[in-house]
Write a structure and sequence with these properties.
alpha/beta; 4 domains
Length: 753
């Protein structure tokens, strides 16, 4: 084994003496060189015989003592770097084995056209050369070993192999480019490491928040585990707690299923009795063959108001709670069968609660029907279990045929429902329905009953009203339709989730008689100005038979151009048909306002205004998120409108050309004018984000005014703003739709045909 010498020691320890000759192998010799004048080759030094069988990679005395003759890669001592290039005269070409002070040996490789190996033995002087002699076998062996060790190829190297890899024992040292890149990286890291830390912190925090949200959402979707103990006190011990949840039996638990603090106090809870199968109430609801029916009847007396013939019922509330709160609650009108009407009691309100059940449990143990005492009046409540014995609270996961349902019939006095009767009117300040899953049906109560307010709140149930007269109506329901004829004097709000709305609206002004229905298209009676109306012109004569007999104050010329009201101090003059602005201002200026709102998240809306008092202004919002919308304004409506639609069209129906429908009986024609409008400060348009600038160039909204025009005398059509200023109309109609068409008419057509 060859141990390389220590490179830190003096390499001269391995140099030969100056008197000894060194062997240098020349790999490239020109065959054409002239050696005739070369000096005689001196006798070579004798090499020990032992070296002839040794590894001659470095020649004597560095041969391998084992004598294996290995001619592979040898390890020359003390060479720090490889030669950078054979053509450069660098220090790497110096012979580290030469004697000190002796000149370097000639280059070991030269490019020649013809090459052949030769052996040159330099003498003591660098200027003396000898003619090479023929090689002996020993010389060839030495030459081959030396050539392999010193990497002296016998052929010229290519230009691309001028750089040679470093020795294995010396290790690789980084180049200048690598050191430069390392410095650049350190400077860059020192400059930006703080920002990198901050970005990494934000990234980690964001990942943590995202993971937390995902885990929270997933946990929120899971059903809460069954508690280890009951959340209420079961005093009667009739309810069983089933942790596996397989029991679908239902049991009424008073502490859990009874009335809440706002529902009232239980007064009377009679036991249901078998229902008379021959009762005329079967005409309203025919039971199924497998159902058993039980009946409970309540009566509430009516009181007569002092000085009037009106029968008054205190505030009345009907409540239905729990899994079994399905069915219908109905107020019978004069359109009911005669036998049903005759079954009522005079002077009383009769409430029949009919329970229908086809399950196998005892009906008395799963329902509770009672009268309620409330701070605001009386009521009737139906209470059923809110959970099964297995703690299933979703009614839609249960078999509906195993749950009870109810048909509630509310009957007024028979005399009030007779068409020929002159019985007093029935009035109730408030009637409310708080239902989980029940529908409401109201019969034809025209000239039978009136209400201060009707409130319906049903989680899943529709509303049908043949005719209802009330000051205010509020309906909140879902997944079903709302249809009816509503006589309203203050406001109506219908909000349905996933349900359609069909409404015929009669606007009522209690301060004046209204004789302008729009149910038929006959000649309307003209609106007359009363004597001394508005506090001026008291010396003017009453109107008699024609609107042309109306006298008004004469306008100044400027008032006609500006649309300003006439001068009240001017002398009276015969009626001038051109002074329509003055007539409208004095006779049609609104003194009463009614608000209507019809909103559904998904469904159709059909609304028509069958009656509209001339002095009543209308504020109406009609909106559906998906479905068609059809609105018919009454001819008496004069004011602005906006129709906004997304993914749908807007259609404006041409008004009827019949000039006899003019409320002023002046032969004007019903018309509409499109264009930007002036919004009322704090009004419906402004609250919904509509103004003149946004409507002037809107991509999905159409605005204008509905009015009456005298086409025979008015040759130019005024702008909507001029109409608003002239008529001083305070109404606002806003229609908003999506995924459907909007149809707007101006003649009060019925929405239900």
């Amino acid at each position: 084994m060859i141990i390389p010498p220590d490179p830190e020691k003096d390499p001269n320890v391995f140099n030969r003496t100056e008197s000894s000759s060194s062997l240098v192998l020349e790999g490239l010799v020109d065959e054409d060189d002239d050696h005739s004048n070369a000096p005689t080759v001196p006798q070579r030094p004798q090499i020990p015989a032992r070296a002839r069988t040794s590894n001659h990679a470095f020649g004597y005395p560095f041969g391998d003592d084992l004598g294996l003759g290995y001619s592979g890669e040898a390890l020359p001592p003390y060479e720090r770097q490889r030669m950078e290039g054979l053509s450069s005269a660098s220090s790497s070409n110096d012979d580290v084995f030469a004697d000190p002070g002796s000149p370097s040996s000639p280059p070991l490789m030269r490019e020649r056209t013809h090459i052949r190996p030769s052996l040159i033995i330099p003498g003591a002087s660098s200027s003396t050369f000898i003619q090479p002699s023929p090689l002996t076998p020993l010389d060839e062996d030495l030459m081959t070993a030396s050539t392999s060790t010193a990497r002296l190829p016998l052929t010229a190297p290519s230009s691309s192999s001028s750089r040679i890899d470093p020795k294995l024992w010396e290790g690789s040292q980084p180049s200048a480019v690598d050191r430069h890149k390392t410095k650049q990286w350190k400077r860059w890291w020192k400059k930006w490491k703080k920002w990198i830390y901050v970005a990494a912190a934000f990234l980690i925090a964001g990942i943590g928040v995202a993971v937390g949200l995902l885990v929270g959402l997933k946990a929120a979707r899971k059903t809460a585990p069954i508690p280890t103990r009951s959340p209420w006190q079961e005093n009667d011990g009739s309810s069983a707690w089933v942790t596996s949840g397989e029991s679908l039996n239902i049991t009424y638990v008073p502490s859990r299923d009874g009335p809440g603090p706002l529902d009232g106090t239980l007064l009377l809870c009679p036991t249901p009795t078998p229902f008379n199968e021959s009762s005329p109430l079967n005409l309203l609801s025919q039971p199924f063959p497998a159902q058993i029916q039980r009946n409970i009847t309540f009566t509430f007396p009516l009181t007569k108001t002092n000085g009037t013939d009106v029968l008054t019922l205190p505030d009345f509330t009907f409540i239905a709670r729990g899994l079994g709160s399905s069915g219908t609650v109905e107020i019978v009108g004069n359109d009911a069968p005669a036998s049903v009407i005759a079954g009522g009691l005079e002077g009383n309100i009769t409430v029949d609660v009919i329970a229908q059940y086809s399950g196998f449990q005892d009906l008395d143990s799963i329902i509770k029907v009672c009268t309620l005492q409330r701070p605001d009046g009386l009521g009737v409540g139906i209470f059923t279990p809110s959970q099964t014995d297995g703690k299933v609270s979703n009614a839609y996961m249960l078999n509906p045929m195993l749950l009870p349902s109810f048909h509630v019939v509310i009957r007024l006095p028979p005399s009030a429902l007779q068409a020929w009767s002159q019985a007093p009117l029935v009035y109730s300040p408030s009637v409310s329905f708080e239902l989980d899953r029940m529908a409401v049906r109201l019969g034809n109560l025209s000239n039978v009953a009136e209400f201060g307010s009707i409130n319906v709140n049903s989680g899943r149930g529709g509303v049908i009203a043949e005719y209802v007269a009330a000051e205010t109506v509020n309906i909140w329901t879902g997944a079903n339709a709302v249809r009816g004829v509503w006589n309203i004097s203050q406001a109506i709000t219908v909000n349905s989730t996933d349900g359609s709305i069909y409404s015929n609206v009669i606007l009522h002004d209690p301060n004046e008689a209204d004789t302008t229905p729009a149910a038929s298209y006959q000649i309307f009676e003209p609106v007359r100005r009363q004597n001394g109306n508005d506090g001026d012109d008291g010396d003017q004569d009453d109107t008699s038979s024609s609107g042309s007999d109306i006298t008004v104050s004469e306008e100044s010329p400027s008032s006609t151009e500006t649309g300003a009201p006439p001068n009240a101090t001017a002398p009276a003059a015969p009626f001038n048909p051109l002074n329509l602005g003055a007539v409208a201002e004095k006779m049609l200026h609104a003194t009463h306002n009614i608000s209507t709102t019809f909103v559904t998240s998904q469904g159709y809306i059909f609304t028509s205004y069958l009656q509209h008092p001339p002095r009543t202004s209308l504020t109406s919002l009609i909106y559906t998120h998906q479905g068609d919308v059809s609105v018919a304004l009454h001819p008496n409506y004069v004011g602005p409108f906006i129709a906004s639609n997304i993914w749908g069209q807007v259609r404006l129906v041409d008004p009827q050309p019949n000039t006899q429908n003019d409320p002023l009986d002046q032969g004007r024609s019903r018309s509409y004018i499109l264009g930007p409008i002036d919004e009322v400060g704090g009004g419906l348009f402004e609250r919904r984000g509509f103004n003149a600038s946004s409507l002037d160039d809107s991509p999905n909204s159409i605005s204008g005014v509905a009015t009456w025009l005298n086409t025979t005398t008015e040759h130019t059509i005024p702008s909507p703003q001029i109409v608003q200023q002239t008529t001083q109309c305070d109404g606002e109609v806003l229609i908003m739709g999506a995924w459907g068409d909007i149809t707007l008419g101006f003649n009060g057509e019925s929405a239900m045909g």
